[in-house]
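Hi P.,

Sorry for the delay on this. The queue was packed all week, but I finally got your sequence through. Input first:
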Amino acid sequence: MLDGLLQGVEVALSWQGLLMCAIGVTLGTVIGVLPGIGVLASVSLLMPITFGYPPAIGLIMLSGVFYGAAYGGSTTSILMNLPGTANTAVTCLDGHPMAQQGRAGVALFITTIASFIGSIGGAIVLAVLSMPLANLARNFGSQEYLAVMVLGLMAAAAFATYGLARAMAMTALGILIGLIGIDLNTGLERYTFGMQSLFDGVPIVAIAIGLFGLPEVLANLSRRGEAPPPVISVTLREMLPTREDMRRSTPSMVRGGLVGCLFGILPGAGSLLASFMSYAVERNSSKTPEKFGTGMIEGIAGPETANNAAIQTAFIPTLSLGVPGDSTMAIVLVALIYHGIDPGPNFVTQHPDIFWGLIVSFLIGNLMLLVLNLPFIGLWVKMLRIPNSILYPAIVVFSCIGVYSVRLMPSDLYLMAGCAVLGYLMRSFRLDAPPLLLGFVLGPMMEEHFRRTLLISRGDPAAFLSTGLTWGIYLLMIAMVGWSLWRNALTRRRVKAQAAG
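Then the structure:
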């Protein structure tokens, strides 16, 4: 390990390594701040540039874009309720209310620190536990992955602002939307209405921006007159979190890091599911869960830490098993194969310069991001001073550019507009948007593992509970549901007692 680490230091601290790392994290931050462009499309477009460099150098740049976008993506989520990336949609729930309360600087500071802690923690886990965790992930079959997806679906209860029944209904709607497209098993069209633009399904960028960002614009346009720009302090002292903020957010960062590392090593789970699960953990562990969605600092500290930790640990199944952690990792896998490198259990020993160079670049890149993001907090906060007559058209333009750039299909713009109207109606009828997005993401994966389990077992339903891992996951799910119901009952009792005086 020491010899490999020395090789990694030599690679990452070379002039090419430092330059490509700086370019990657800077591009990633810009991509994250501009809503809708997306990490997947950006990494795909930049991949051919890396072919002229050694594999370690090219991988350093691509990974820098990946985790750099996670830093920048929370900026527009907090300031404009517009997810910079789909992974930061959860940050909108409490980050934007904090901005409306005049605490945008504190929210951005906490997200930067949480992202840094999550990334460093994930890099350490990648360095120390890469092989043991890869062996653990290797034991996961389709029935275990299905159990994990069902566990993630139970996280929809954490977003039940207007009632559990409404949240579950939105989750079901999200699952139905996620099933749109060509059935991979039969080749039949499902809910496409003959439109070729839906054969590959509904793009997640259109869903995320349409449900979270544009309804905010529509809601403000429906009000007469223009609200005066908020008076936001941008002095360094008022950007810094208070002792109470740090006391509440520190345990959330620890829990978020653990959740992110766990879900990052599971192929297919990814950082999006990690951020949702972290939010569910924070709400269920809070003494005041009813306040989530009103500007709770735990609601951004935990998910942001989990998001960045999962991005780092997603390299474990990609490099050690040759199985992409998520869609972006699939692009990284393609880049490695192009260079003639086959990821697998022997990757660490056969290519120590790439593996350890990547880990050292994580540490350097996150320090660069810390230096890059903290001084610009005041600049980002000043965006809230822009008059609505300029801000809202700019949001719509950037959203359209971002959505169109993913697949270059005009129909995606209509999908985004339809999701925006749906999001506005959901807000008017007191329906939650996050459960819909969660169901949209998990629905296709659940179907895939459900059908695969039945195919392997020749239709035997007992296969869903055939291993100890599945039993453990389902028992954990039952415990989480029971804990959530018990906490909700205590909350209702406390609210009634307060109302009674």
